[in-house]
What does this fold into?
Amino acid sequence: LRYQFRGSGSNGTTAICAGGTSLSGGETTYGVNNIDYVTVASVGTVGDAGDLTSGSRQGSGASNGTLCFFMGGNDPAGGAGKQQEMEYMTISSTSGSAEGGDLTSKSTHHASSNGDSKTLIVGVDTNETGKTNVDEHNFSTSADASDYGNVATVGTSDSACASSTTRVIIAGGRPSGVGDAIQSFAVAGGA
It folds into this structure.
């Protein structure tokens, strides 16, 4: 059993998920480095798509249909240390991930949007409250994320994210009191 993934993505044919926490035989392993894939149209088994360069959990993933980025997350040892690094892989390959750029700060429990030309990473911050900062990244394999602005009106953690090519919607999450909040902002905008 695996949960608390570092991130996931899809190209419509293949879906991948990476990292997370593994529970097997009563033993818990935090920040595993496995990347798994499944053929979306199949009810077959999960296959091995290689490994992350470093294990992590509770980050986020975003894809543009060709590349998938795994961003931030908690350190693998199960502690409260947060990661700033991004990794990426070609979704159709099984060769694992490579090091990408960095987020603007160490972050975990954030949400990220899929997109054709860029992803927005919502809730980037090192504390659990007041996470209104948003990063943007253009799916370039070596580029760092940049500050998109504090466009989120309510600080979020563990939120759900949905997006189109023009809008991003963030819903729910923590801290308490924002679980029913829904926020929307333009992909092309910024603060």
